[in-house]
Each structure stands twice: as C-alpha cells, then as structure tokens.
Amino acid sequence: MRVLGKRFLGVAFVATVCACKMNAQTVSIDGEFRPRAEYRDGFGSPLSDSNDPGVFTYQRTRLGASFSSAILKTQFTVQDTRSFGKTAPNSETATLGVFEAWSEFLLMPGGSLKVGRQVLAYDDNRLFSASNWSNTGNSHDLALFKYNVDDFQAHLGFAYNNSSAISSEAVYANAAKYRYMGLLWLSKGLAKGLTLSAIAVDEGMQPTTDATKYGTKVNMNHGYTFGGNLKYSSEVCPFSALGTVYFQAGKNQTGDDMSGSMAAIKLNYKISPVFTTSLGTDYLSGDDNSTDGKQKNFRKLYGANHSFNGSMEYWSTPLTQGLLDYYGSVNAKVSKKSSFEGVFHVFNTSKDMTNKGTNIGKSLGSELDICFNYKLNEWTNLQAGWSTYFANDNTRIAKGMTADTKTRFPQWGYVMLTVSPSYLKSIFTDK
CATH number for the domain including 32? Predict the structure, then answer.
C-alpha cells in the first residue's frame, strides 16, 4: 500500500507539472501612491498646552512586479517612504528600499515553498500583519512551507537573521528584534462558516543587555507565543463572531520568565444591508511586580497596531499593568462608493495602577474614532478620519506626566489618498 501511495503521489505530481505547460502565465506591474496629511494634537499621548499641534504629510510610493504560473510565483516590490520636506530638492540621498522579494515554488500537489522577503499575515492580524497603515509596512526574511488541501491549511516558517555576512559568530544588531524565528500556523474548517486556527511562534533573541552571555558562540533566549482563533461567518446569517486567545512562555531578551496572555472577542450583527454593529473586548495581561524576574504582561509581536485599541494609538505599546479595551462600533455603507464607521473605546488597565505608593485604580479614559471612505474610481480611494481622546488623571500619569499637567484637548485628524494603478497585466499561454 505504501508503494502504491508513493506511486500515486508521483504520478499526480508529474501530471500536475505536465498540465502546467498548458496553463497561462500572468505578468503584472502595479503601483501605489499614498500621501496622508495628519493633524496631531495629542496623538499617542496628551499634548502639553505649552506646545502647538503638529501638522505633516507622509507619502508611501510602491512599484511591484509579479509573475504567476501553476508551478511558480514571484513578487518584487520596492517602496519609498518619506515625510514631505524631509528630503531636500537637491538631495542625493537614496530612500528606495525593498519591501517584498520572494519566489514560491510548487513542490507537490497542495504544497509549495516561499523564500525571500515577504509579508506574514494571519487570522486577526494581531501577531503578524502587513501593517498597511504604517508608512513602511511589515515584511520578514524567511523560508515558508505552505500546504493547502480543501479546507485545511498549514504554514511552517523559519528565519535566521544576521546584520551582514559572517565567518564566525557575531552579535546580531537586532534590527528585526529576533535573531531566529520558527512559525507554525494551522487552519481547519470545522463546519460551514466555522473555522479554527492555531499558531505557535518561537523567537530566539540574543541577550544583548549582558555581553558575557553571548561571546563568540550563539546564545539566545527563546520566547514562545501560542494560541488560536475561532471564527464564525456566513453570508446567510447576519451574525458573525471571532474569538482569540494567546499565551506566552519561555524567556524574554533580558532573561525573565514570560507568562503573559491575551484574549479578545468581537461580535458583529448586520442590522440591514446598510448598517452593521459590533461589540468587542480586548484583554492583555498585566504585571504587578516588575522585579520578581517574571514578565507577566503580554508582549506584542508584529501585528497591526493601528487596527486595535484605538486609532490614536495611546496603548499600542501595552502598559506594564496590562490593558482592558471595551468597544462598540457602527458601520454604515452609505452608497456603493462610500462608507462610514464610528468606534467608541473605554480603556482600563488589567492591574491596578499606583502613583507615589497610592492606588489610583484602573481607568485610562476613553476614545472616539470616526472614519469615512470614498471610492473615487477603480484605482483611487479617499479616506478621512477624526479621533478624540477623553483623558483623565490616570491617562497623564500612565504617559509619564503629573496628574495636574495642563494639556490640550486631545484630537487627531487625517486625509489619505490612495492611488493604485495597474500599469500592465498580460496573460501568456504556452504552446
């Protein structure tokens, strides 16, 4: 039976390769121009009333080329990121960089190997994301084995980073945070509309805070993050839901034991073809003793910071005391081209805060986020948003201020234009 099984797989793979000769090959060249003007009057932290708000414009420009056939896919994307005025009109400083550069090869029916600089994005985008809001985005250098058959998917990834070519062990400059990373992601459909996924991440980080721990030999502290997502979504049911749980173990970069956790649940209900409402809660564990050699607060990995816990990003880096975020939203599809979303957050720490030895509770204030999208045409989208944060004394203390610091009323607004032209798309068929 084993021999027959091997022969069957071999015949299937040869048949797949032969069939590929008759399949089409697609070559595409596309671009992106994305300027975003922002008004920051307390973005990320309350602004002292002795300061004026900041106004600036980001721009991200990308050019991508892709090739796709039944046995090979490639992607190459270069990008330029800048703030208006950062580069002088006569500057000779290069600002172009590689965002993606990968090839994906078919190894067997349903199995492929993707190697190079690539985006990692899984499930709710909390651990790994393209981080599209960021002007630079997130991409990683690794080899990723992918297997996909029916409603089962598996990804196994491996990365090992160095600052340059080395002939003997050298300390990594930590540009990517991890020296080594192993990744396993599994996804399986349990029933119609119901999907369960699991993920495990092993990060190896050099203990650079103590030079005696590495020397000329590889020595890494390994931190482990693992957990999963349960998602329900159906076109025939107005209700959908997503539940998330992650845990952490191992050791952090300074050698402390890790025991953080996070959990989230989001419930959505489609009231009508126009209106959808959502309710959700995010919990990130906190630490009430930072000197016991244990890191109990949850450490974020490489997810989409802007997508969670408020658009003003007050808590994109979680406090030592952790975070509780209760939120509700309303989304309205105004027309075929336009939509509106409003979200209200109430923030608390998961552990009590103290100030000069006095317990000051958990309240961190609240936030209102408003966003409007309008699709001008097939290639162009306009987005505008406004947010405000209702800060309290605890907010200012958590941000390193005194409770009575005079601050401006926190608000933030932006206008972003995204133009994504397709310069070329050609399909070739082998004879």
Answer: 2.40.160.100
Of 272, 326, 313, the closest CA to residue 133 belongs to 313
Structure tokens at 226: 């693992």
Q: How many CB atoms lie within 10 A of CB 371?
A: 18
pTM confidence score: 0.89
Q: Which amino acid is at 287?
A: D
3-state percent breakdown (helix, strand, coil) of the chain, nearest 5: 5, 55, 40
The answer to whether residues 115 and 97 touch, using CB atoms and an 8 Å cutoff, is no
Give Dmax (Cα) for the chain: 79
Identity of the amino acid at 272: S
3-state DSSP assignment of residue 73: strand
Name the residue type at position 112: S
Q: Convert the pLDDT of each residue in 311-362 to its tens digit.
A: 999 999 889 999 999 999 999 999 999 999 999 999 999 999 999 889 999 9
User: How many domains are there within the chain?
Assistant: 1
Residue 4 clears pLDDT 80, i.e. is over it: no
The length of the chain in residues reads 431
Domain carrying residue 239: 2-429
Q: Is residue 328 within 8 Å of 344, Cβ to Cβ?
A: yes
118 by Cβ neighbours in 10 Å (0-12 / 13-18 / 19+) ranks as buried
